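Reopening this ticket.

The earlier resolution said the output was attached, but the attachment link was broken on my side. Pasting everything inline this time so it's all in one place.
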Amino acid sequence: MVNNQDSDVVQSQLKLVILGESAVGKTSFLHQFINNTFVDKREPTVGAGFLTKTVDSGDRQIKFNVWDTAGQERFHSLAPMYYRGAQAAIVMYDVTKEDTFGRAKMWVRELQRQAPANIVIALVGNKVDLCNGQQENDNDTAERQTQTEDAARYAAECALLFFETSAKANINVEAVFTEIARNVPLEQLAPIRPPGSNKRSSGRNDHDRVDLTQGSSNVVSTRNNNGCAC
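Inline output:
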């Protein structure tokens, strides 16, 4: 992964949104990818967080513009504001909490109904370190509740990318983004504007956090997809 501005490399960007129940590890997963860091205790995301990172993908550099959404039910109505226009989505669950897998299926169905028709969706089972003997403290271990075979079968039925990951142990984190970059059609990627573009910058920093708990409107796409109603 590099951030070099080689004039011979095509530079593109894509919008990606991370969805899933609260406390499945979305923010920790994203910070492991962006900063190669892990923090055990994080405050719940409020509204959404925004981070970016540029990666190499063959002869192309892709800038990921990532919206990290809050998992609490009270923020659900805000989600369409983030996945509208997205080229990719990560739907995450906790392999040690079966109810979060059910919630992930609900997000997949919503994306298939309302997100852009060509969106690439990755189903990600996080926290595998809790049930594979990688914890230093036995009290931190947990029993797996969603089996790999069941999740993989569901992903195949719904034409989703599928990964099991650990944000803490840095298992498969980079692989998720690499595979997404490979699967988003080139024509769906937006070119990065060259320096000196006349378009005024929004002024947003790469690590902005957006609090939309007050006075936000609910904007919902009405596009219906013909994909699997999983």
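Reporter confirms the inline version is readable. Confidence is low (pLDDT under 50) at residues 199-227. The domain at 10-132+143-191 is CATH 3.40.50.300 (Rossmann fold).
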